[in-house]
Design brief:
The complex is a heterodimer of chains A (133) and B (372). Chain A has 133 residues and is of the alpha/beta class. Chain A has helices at 17-29, 40-50, 66-77, 89-93, 120-132, and strands at 9-13, 33-37, 54-58, 83-87, 112-115. Chain A has a five-stranded parallel β-sheet, with helices on both faces. The chains are: A alpha/beta (133), B alpha/beta (372).
Chain lengths: 133, 372
Amino acid sequence: MTNEEYLPLILLADDDPDYLFQMKFALEKGGFRVITAESMDEAELILEKDHPKLAIFDLMMERDDAGFILSYHAKKKHPGMPVILLTAVTAETGRQFGSNLPGADGWIKADLYLEKGLHPDQLIEHIKSLLSH
Amino acid sequence: MLKVLVVDDEPGIRSGIDRILSKFTVGYPFMDEDIGYTVYEASTGEEAIRIFHDNPPDIALLDNKLPGMGGVEVLEYIKRNQLNIEVMMITSFASLELAVKATNIGAYDFVPKPFTPQELRSSMENITKHLFLKRMTQKMNKEGKQIRFQFLSVLSHELKNPLNSIEGYLRMMQERQAGDQIASYDEMIDRAIARIKGMRVLIMDLLDLTKIESGKKNREMQQTDLVKIARISCETMGPMAIQMEVDIQLNSPEEFNVMADAEELEIILNNLISNAVKYNKVGGKVICTLKTVNNKLIIEVEDTGIGIPEDDIPTLFREFVRIRQKETKHIMGSGLGLSIVKRLIDLYDGTIEVESHPGKGSIFRVVLPVII
């Protein structure tokens, strides 16, 4: 039996409680511990206290740029912690968006951008690969 | 003030027009202020075109017979470059041919020379009113489109979010993510149903709003007993109030007949009372008071809830504005209730005001000038 304490802790921030419920469920099944935040404040507090191994931020929460701000703070506090930004940008605008964007590298601090509709299994693959580096 | 450029090679005509227009104003009964004119001058067509770019006028009075390029050519220049300038031609002799040509190219009007001050004034009045209405229409269309676009983009979000989460729960079940026991999915099913309920409320509110907006709501103004409606509203909220241990009181006479549309009063009361319960504290109170002051109907709904921060009060009645607070995160709402209430109250030329003390509660006070 795995001792739960040793499972990597993941911070998941999104303002939709149902999305949090669903992702938490999937990630826990995938072998992670999950701590959720419904607001930027909550997420900042968790970053301070709980030292997650990886953080997943929704881009748009109470502010449209919440995800950017959170990744910036997260990277400042824990430079080694991978950050995934989840966006619905492609679904909403038909345009892709990410670190491959010219000029985005400098100021967007996330390691990976993923679309929100992504299947949890694939998200778990991405998480595992980021954590193995 | 409208800027008028007089383009004429005769100095006497230019100063004459200046004199006539400097003392002349045009107004509509519904306008706060009359429109006056600032007049400036050009003696040739070439000079006029330079001025169009440096200091463009609202209206150009164009003499046709000019030394260099003619008035019609200046007019053609304005149209070709799509300058936002209205043109009135001054024709040296009343030539029908010229007038027809100028009108075809896009001159608004023409005055034959010589003209009396009165002739000039009445032509100016026409072109000014035309310009005013044209600009108002443009402005209203633009604002209307913008508001509509914003509304639709927020609305599509509000409709898509619950669909996404319901789809998520169904996929979890489809993939048997919690095993083969249906009981393991109880919470997911409850959550999905809650989102469906929220969506239904949103759609119902949206229908109310569209009916009011389009003016297609059939209003039936008749003697209506407000107390009866208020009692029904309080009863409707009963189950939620019991859950929250909130006590609802109704302060009113036995009967209170007003001339109004019963359905509209019901929507107003339902929204105010349900908010007062929803945003209350466990063990709190809601007091609904119906009374008359100075022959006006007053509806007051007071709660002992979480209150509204002062900064948020000005936006409270806008569509899809839901004040984000820790305490309101889990309370369901379409974000349309108060905007519907406001629109209905507007139909009666009434007012609604809010008094709120964060942490202590709020009072919503509606004043309706209805026949009692």
